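BUG: 3D viewer hangs when loading the predicted structure for this chain

Environment: internal workstation, default settings.
Expected: structure renders.
Actual: progress bar stalls at 90%.

Input used:
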Amino acid sequence: MAASAAPGGVNTVRRVITFLLLGVMVLIAGIGLAGLIERAITTPAVLADFGSSGLAQSLAFTLIAGPFALGLWWFAWRNLTDASADRHSAAWPVYLIIAHTVSLIVFSLAALEFLSDLVIGVWSPGPLSVALAWALIWVWHHWMWFHAAKGPT
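Structure tokens produced before the viewer hung:
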């Protein structure tokens, strides 16, 4: 007599690990993307003042965590069908709620900091780059949240 598989045991652990790794990789890629955007916004003269370690860190964060996050996202996204338990599990909406909320908070605070600096007449590309990077992440997660075929149920 063959033993039946546990309903959800290994799959639940897989979902939690996948979405936890995805969240960490999105966070790291967002930090790297913000650093690259800041370097793109600044003038070339200021670009040399940053030093090469900041550029190396931003590139490493973006070029390593970014593709890893996209790979994990693709792995999770292709399994989110009406027939699969992944779409109906609690891990998917919990990940989306956390990522959606964190990206909205980081975007809002950075945008407010940038606008407050503009009010006093200071140009600060740092908060602007953070706001742009995390706005992209927020839009991506907002799109996933309200996707008709793959959004959480």
